[in-house]
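Quarterly update, task 2.4: tryptophanyl-5'AMP-bound model.
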Amino acid sequence: MRIVSGIQPTGNLHLGNYLGAIRNWVRMQDEYSAKGAECLYFLADLHAISMPHSPAELASNTREMVAALVSCGIDPDKSILFNQAQVPAHAELQWLLNGTARMGWLNRMTQWKDKAGKNREGASVALFTYPVLQAADILLYQGTHVPVGDDQKQHLELARDLAQKFNNDFCPEDAPLFTLPEPIIPPEAARIMSLRDGTAKMSKSDPSDMSRINLTDDADAIMQKVKKAKTDPEPLPATVEGLAGRPEANNLVGIYAAMVGLAPAAVLAEFEGKGFGQFKPALGELLVEKLSPMAARYRELREDREALDAILCKGALNARDLAAPTLTRAYEALGLVRG
Ligand code: TYM
């Protein structure tokens, strides 16, 4: 078993990242590293250059994201924590996989369609081939389990298709090179939605900061954002079916449930018939209680640039070692002579 996942260092860690992915990273690290499985968690800084960006911000966001992950419970002694840019094998394997990936596959990716929008001619080539790099990230380490939110499911399917086609085209039937990875998506928090629009996912690219709870938000900001969150005038229903057609109510109940580790039905049993005037303060306080210890650790850690760089350096050394055998076999499978 080998656990692999990544996050783009393009801004703050928000509640969607935390509940959808990072909390599972920590759980899997704690459970499986004790049993000898390797957990590799990385900052997808190479992915971050697929959109217009500021180089200075990317560098500081990369270090800040390390601090955020460690504050959430990623332990650099249990997991291999690194950034792609320090492990050139990611970019190398991407190129090798570009020969196998098909234009049609990439053209169907919803992230490509959403982010390129109507201006495909003006979008970067990196945005188009983004899922091939993501596949390389996982296949390079023979990743078996990939903890992600629901929005990454399609990219994971592409990684499996790529692995399968490469194995079929270039490997003997009894010695496939790549392992087919499984996405691990938490059912209770697969898709955390924006606080301003229950039909759009919570995202760091939303221009309104009121749409998301950031790990860096203080208690006042959290209470304020929850208070201002969009809702409807109805009280909370008795059953989950009663949330149908009420995306904002559904989202807030879902967040509450994910934070306390209960099913939404159990939350409704407690708040049935109550209005948002009562539910929102309870949700705000819950978020403050659960997030503030992480936020406090984060504020301390982010100041220690030397320690953060040391974590990345150690992680990169380990990742390079683990990546080397698969990369060599991929070159060989393709008939590339390397002396
Ligand atoms: P990124 O940086 O957008 O998000 C990091 C993780 O957070 C999850 N996530 C959410 N989950 C639930 N609700 C939300 N609103 C929400 N927003 C984000 C994402 O699903 C993700 O798991 N392409 C990836 C990074 C990546 C990667 C990889 C992931 C690069 N290579 C290899 C896994 C394996 C991305 O941009 O995630």
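Highlight for this quarter: The radius of gyration is 21 Å.
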